[in-house]
Amino acid sequence: MKYLEEFRDPKAVRELAVRIAAKATRPWVLMEICGGQTHTIVKQGLDRLLPESVEFVHGPGCPVCVTPLEQIDRAIAIARRPEVTFCSFGDMLRVPGSDTDLLEVKSAGGDVRIVYSPLDALALAQKRPDRQVVFFAVGFETTAPANAMAVAQAKRLGVENFSVLVSHVLVPPAILTLLASPTNRVQAFLAAGHVCTVMGYTEYEPIAAKYHVPIVVTGFEPTDILEGVLAAVTQLEEGRAEVENAYARSVTRQGNQPAQSLIREVFQVTDRKWRGLGSIPSSGLSLSEAYRDFDAELRFDVLDVRAEEPAACRAGEVLMGTLRPNACEAFGTLCTPEHPLGAPMVSSEGACAAYYRYGRTAPGGTAP
Amino acid sequence: MCLGIPGRVVEKHEQEGLLMGVVDFGGVRRTACLAYLPEIEIGEYTIIHAGFGISRLDEDEARQTLELLAELGEAEALAQVDVNDRGEVVSPAVGAEGRQAGV
Predict the structure, then answer these.
(1) What are the Cα distances from residue A49, in Å, to A221, A324, A335, B85, B91?
(2) Which end of chain A is more exposed for a tag (fewer CB within 10 A), N or C?
(3) Which residue of B has its CA nearest to A6?
(4) Cα–Cα distance between A306 and A70 in angstroms, integer?
(5) Domain tally for chain B?
(6) In order along chain A (368 residues), what is the average pLDDT of each group of 10 residues?
(7) Candidates 3.40.50.11750, 3.50.30.20, 3.30.200.20, 1.10.760.10; correct CATH number of A5-62+171-245?
(8) Is A91–B1 a contact, with Cβ atoms under 8 angstroms apart?
(9) What is the DSSP code string of B57-90?
(10) Which of A347, A336, A295 is nearest to A93 (CA)?
(11) What pTM was computed for the model?
(12) What angle do CA A124, A128, A133 make, to 5 degrees?
């Protein structure tokens, strides 16, 4: 497919690895924010192609992974209602709630459906005015334009039987939390290419300056990722800390303005709880006042559903990049994709799932 | 979750007040919302996420990157460097995944 295969050329991948090795004179720790990038790195063995002095730690950019337990419990409480058709991206269905998951609700007769786009859920609501159609609006900034448009259209077209359970999170506050942590080892970030496609990268410029960390906007194919690494290592070696765009075919500094404008209209910034990381101020989105009628939390009165994270799952440390997935005692024994303790083992973007799926079963604190 | 797939816009139309389009992904065609790309033209490439076009792909930038990659590939072929001295990475494994994923 055009614009995919060309960015996977093995010869270019090897040459980029050689150039990174030639550039790196000291040990450096890089974090890729995005779970999709984590999967490319682990699946293609990019981390093993690099010199040992360049270490990847995997970031919290997996929306399924960071959605807190109580939000899953709220989704389950809504999905169990007989009048509700509950629509979600597929990844969310197997994330464990306190005592069940959405897939089990479906098996038990609940009307739970996987959709490709939030507009599909809206179309379903238009087709079935007798049903309450709820969409589980999770995601980072990349997904916010799609979810914002579904809500705006519902309001414009007067689709009253449609609502959204919002669990939106934002990347920059998570980076700030990581940088402020006393256990932080990350010296440079690969910023998530599609988040920046929507938002641009001006938000990252004060972060790079304040903490003196290079932040390189990076794409998702093997050569994209290694270009991002080369740019980050070059900056580190030269003592620079700038925001650099290594995914210019999709990302501009200002991002997608029409998308940002609708996000600002439909959503407002709010404090959000992140699974494993706790509550982070101004780290997420909720519906703005003008769109509150479409808020499933209010419509189905689930705000009092509360839950504590299970102690056995060390997802928080994995998401902070302080624990390598296969160094967790539960990895591959108590916790597997078939019987996950936490979301990072479930999601197709979770770091634990990537390690399990691509055979990184050797324990130890560093990459095997 | 932030899966984004590059595709070529082959048709544009309006539906319930929204700019929609048909996007071709290497032969597979799907309808997508193009409301966030008001200036996109038929024949141009976009990245589709959750049924929405989020960027108008900059073909000049893509071409520059591809030229750089071609140079890198030639350099590698000339140097014949076996970077995989630990014997751990097999190059044909690179590039098997048929999608782009990410935040």
Answers:
(1) 15, 18, 28, 9, 10
(2) C
(3) B66
(4) 5
(5) 1
(6) 88 94 96 93 93 93 90 97 96 90 96 96 98 97 98 98 97 94 94 97 98 97 97 98 97 98 98 88 97 98 88 86 92 90 86 91 49
(7) 3.40.50.11750
(8) yes
(9) --HHHHHHHHHHHHHHHHHHHHHT----TTS---
(10) A347
(11) 0.90
(12) 60
**What are phi and psi for residue A228, nearest 5 degrees?**
-65, -45
Q: What is the CATH number of the domain that holds B18?
A: 2.30.30.140
Instruction: Report yes or no on B97 lying in a domain.
Output: no
Q: Give a yes or no: residue B102 inside a domain.
A: no
Instruction: Please tell me which of the candidates B36, B54, B103 has its beta carbon nearest to residue A192.
Output: B103
Domain ranges in chain A?
5-62+171-245, 65-169+255-299, 315-363
Superfamily of domain A65-169+255-299 in the CATH hierarchy: HypD, alpha/beta domain 2 (3.40.50.11740)
Phi-psi region of B50 (alpha: psi -120 to 50; beta: other; left: phi over 0): left
Chain A residue with CA closest to B59: the answer is A249
Closest CA to A247 of B3, B47, B65: B65
Domain A5-62+171-245 and domain A65-169+255-299, same fold? Reply is yes
CA angle A305, A309, A315 (to 5 degrees): 140
Residue of A3, A32, A201, A251 to mutate when probing chain B, most B C-beta within 10 A? A3
Here the tokens at position A46 are: 């990019």
The secondary structure element, H or E, covering residue A146 is helix A144-157
**Contact between chains at A35 and B1 (C-beta distance less than 8 A):** yes
